[in-house]
Amino acid sequence: MRKLSIYLLIILIFSGCSFDTPPNDWQYKSANAFDSYTKNFLRSNDKMAKNDLQRAIAHTKNSADLNHLARIYLGECALNISVGLDDKCQKYNEIKDVVNSKALDAYYSFLRTNITKKEIDKLPKIYQDFAWHVQTKDYKKANTDIISMDRATSQLLAASLLKNNITKNSINKVIETASFHGYKKAVIFWLERLKAVTIDEEERKKINKKISIIKN
Amino acid sequence: MRLAVGLFVLILLVAIFTFLYLLLDEKGTFDKRYNYGFNTESASSFNVGMPLKYSGFNIGVIDKISLQDDGTVHMVFSVNENNRKWVTKDSVLMLKKPLIGSPHIELYSAIDNEVLKENSTITILLSDDINDMVSKLEPAVDRIISIINNIDNITSYLSNDNSDILLTLENIRKFSDNLTKSTSLLTTITGDENSTQSIISSLNKTEQIMQEIHKISTDISKITSSLDSDIMQPTSSTIKELDKIMKDVKQKLESLDGTVKAVGSYDEDLYELKEQLSVGIQKSNQIIDKVDSLLQDEEKSEIVLP
User: Predicted ipTM?
Assistant: First the structure.
């Protein structure tokens, strides 16, 4: 019985050590909440997404590190743009003077589609080629860049930033990716875009039926 | 760092497995068990897992029940090393079926005898339920017999010539004799004819007085009835109406007071409710945070931009 108690104590001590919370706990919580927001937003779980975003922001506001908050604002803006919502990233714009991050400024310019050649290097690596090809108006390569992107959210964002220069093939690829991940909001948006660029009436009807099935 | 984490996990795993081993060992899972058997006519009242007791302590359980080719039932029970010493030669088992509680098998052992070899067969006796009941009813029967003895003593005392009850009955008889001899019950009680006459005359006078009182009260009643119709009734009805109005006013004031108070505390209640809701939401958010961190594939401290 004594041995038993000693071993139980050892297990409890070790378990206790395993669950030590890091001092920057808020950062982990905020990042997790934003990750959850990304998924819920794209999956059309709007109420949950709203709660996730509020939590992410609330955790971030426990710290003076506004860089983190700026990332959340830009992330929110990027997601809105990726599903065709009109967003001018106003929240980021309001705090960018106290953030002072060239990387985030570059990302902001990228979202606003007015990025300069100097800023391209400061973008996340996944977008650099794409941004360069858009800048040089080489839309064929830009479409190829979209297809070769391995992150679904990046693919959705880049595709929507390409606006009318996106090819039907790229749209189909984006729909495929969004469908695979269950991103309902993006699927509906891109099906609508596909319908808009489709001339064949029969095909348009099929797309329309798909949209109504998914919406209901 | 990796080595430290690996070592940490290794020690934790060793501690967990040792703990489990010791726990199971403590429960006797790894103890060697010794099997013994017994035969009965029927398996009713027996079941696998049924305890075997010695001096009120569980020392073993029935592990197996099987039907033999000759129609009898063979049962195997096992005991551990510590309790094996109780199962000795000439030991007897007895199935106990208490009126309250689950049945069990009791082991009656001859302690001085040598320990019985493993897989030996022991004799079992089935305790008779009726005998059990009789032994339980025995104290009640003793009590009933003592009550009957007491009743016998009382009746024998009553039959005695000098008993109080017989004397009382004799007195009642004498009293009834006197009653039959006297002219009236009153003379029988007072024992004197003159006294009886005096009481009768007093009673007659009392009757006259009562008649006069009745006359006076009738007159008073007439006077009050005239008062009642002229003054009392109108006044009374007015007072009643006034009372009704006042009650109504009071009731309305009370409900108005409640409403005023309710309105006054409305803001406070709302504020309290809002506070509580806010706390509830914060708590649920904390739980969601924990769930989120469990559901994420990897812990990230940086916001990943789309």
Answer: 0.75
